[in-house]
Design a protein that fits this description.
By secondary structure, this protein is mainly α. Helix content is about 80%, strand content about 0%. It has 6 helices and no strands.
Length: about 130
């Protein structure tokens, strides 16, 4: 039961971290495209606050915080040397979503690198 609960905590932490990265990327790019970054220092501060308090970006920041809480809960169930490799799965999902939704460049080298990550996580899961 402890291991199941640990994987639940870990999964929620990963989901929230992935959500956070994608939502912040989406909104920051959209904001920058619609309102260029000002040159004056005080205007930059105001611009930064307008970005931080964008509802979607703010939800991403909250998701990052809550992911941290679930990560702490995960640490109560697993050794960090076992659990931490699973966080690399977020790289796989973020990369695929970035290619699909943000039209970021695709390459077979990215696929190869992601395959190594998946292989490494599987080895850790099986033998770690």
């Amino acid at each position: 039961m402890d291991k199941t609960l640990g994987f639940t905590y870990l999964s929620i932490s990963l989901f929230l971290a992935i959500y956070s990265q994608l939502i912040i990327k989406w909104r920051v790019v959209e904001k920058i495209m619609s309102i260029p970054i000002p040159h004056e220092t005080m205007s930059k501060v105001g611009y930064l606050f307008s970005i931080i308090f964008d509802p979607f970006i703010f939800s991403g920041l909250i998701a990052t915080f809550v992911a941290g809480l679930f990560w702490m809960a995960t640490m109560t169930k697993f050794d960090i040397s076992y659990a931490y490799p699973f966080t690399m799965i977020s790289y796989v999902f973020v990369t695929f979503f970035a290619i699909a939704y943000f039209n970021e460049p695709f390459s077979w080298f990215k696929v190869l690198g992601l395959a190594f990550i998946i292989f490494g996580v599987l080895i850790t899961c099986k033998f770690g």
